Amino acid sequence: MTDPEIPVLTIEDLGVLRSASVDETGAVRVQLTPTYSGCPALDAMRDDVVLALTHAGYDDVSVELVLAPAWTTDWMSEAGKAKLRRYGIQAPTGRAAARDAGPVRVQLAVKCPRCDSLNTRELARFGSTSCKALYECRDCLEPFDYFKVL
Amino acid sequence: MHGSVTVDELALAEELAGSGITGAGRVASADAAEYAMRLGDDALVLAQQLGMWITRAPELEEDVALGNIGLDLIGHARSLLHYAGTATGRSEDDLAYWRGEPEFRNAWLFEQPNGDFAHTIARQLVASLYLYELYGALEESADETIAAIAAKSVKEVDYHRDHAVQWVLRLAGGTDESRRRMILAVTDTWPYVDELFVDDELVTRLAADGVAVLPSTLRPAFEAAVDAVFTEAGLERPTGRTAFIASGGGRAGRHTEHLGPLLAEMQVLARSHPGASW
Question: What's a Pfam family this protein contains (chain B) (predicted)?
Fold first, then answer.
């Protein structure tokens, strides 16, 4: 089961899959949490989970959508971050739990996922989806997406 | 940490495609529903305004940024209005599309027109700094559903405030023209600040139960954040100007002339095809 927008990441890598269990009657219960409040990919993920489990032979499937605790990029697995970088998206740099809370923020450098240069600049804080910002590498001159810390 | 609150109880259930989802369905008290409706209407009206910028922003990146911020706000509005609707058996769509102006509970700030880009940024600055303090405080709400929505929303609003702050700095420190417009926008926006921090009967009652937070208690932190930004930008925080708020203002359903046309555009499709779904 992968994210419809980022097909290299499984919903487990992403931290969207919170739990999955089967009881003695064979009923499957899955808990998902949305990344961003308005993320339209959640609908697709939920349908995909139901479809995949149905194909795997389970006919009693319930998917529960959970809001609390709120999703954070800190839940993204290390394997997931490595896959993201190979795909050309830089993984979140730093931990949400350690974010500076002041209103005027200092920007940390983001590494280019292709050439590892730190000589990059932000083109747009809001990129192709809510979870990403758009960057450009000044050494290899390629644009790239950066998965924002949340 | 809060309990396990499901989105089914909060929001998306009927609107999400597919089935097999059952929710326990936490029902809001009449007061909590009214409070959730205020917060939900603030987010919904602001989202609608930001959507109007798409294809019209000064650069493509801003079309995307304002669109994404609007999308986050729609997410917050959906959760809040769904919860508000549990008290009266109405869906989030019933509340968004089938209420008229006097039934909307948003504050006047959110319905003020987009104006030029500087005016939108000034409104975004006030809105996001206020919402950041509000949702931060509501993470501790005694109402588990409101606490869960707030904890989720505050992280997104943090990015919205960053966006607004960066633009205020850039416009105030840019050309003479951009600075002139930023100053004018701040001056025009400030009269709508007071309404956000009014403690009326409903919030006072809910705050006593730990469900709501008294808006007046958020003001010092809001002003400190504004001052930090304005010091950096070389701007002054306007004082002494407040809008004439007709009895009760937006929270009592009394609105400026700007809300009607906005709702007309937002609601026309749903009202032309009642009951239609994707």
Answer: PaaA_PaaC
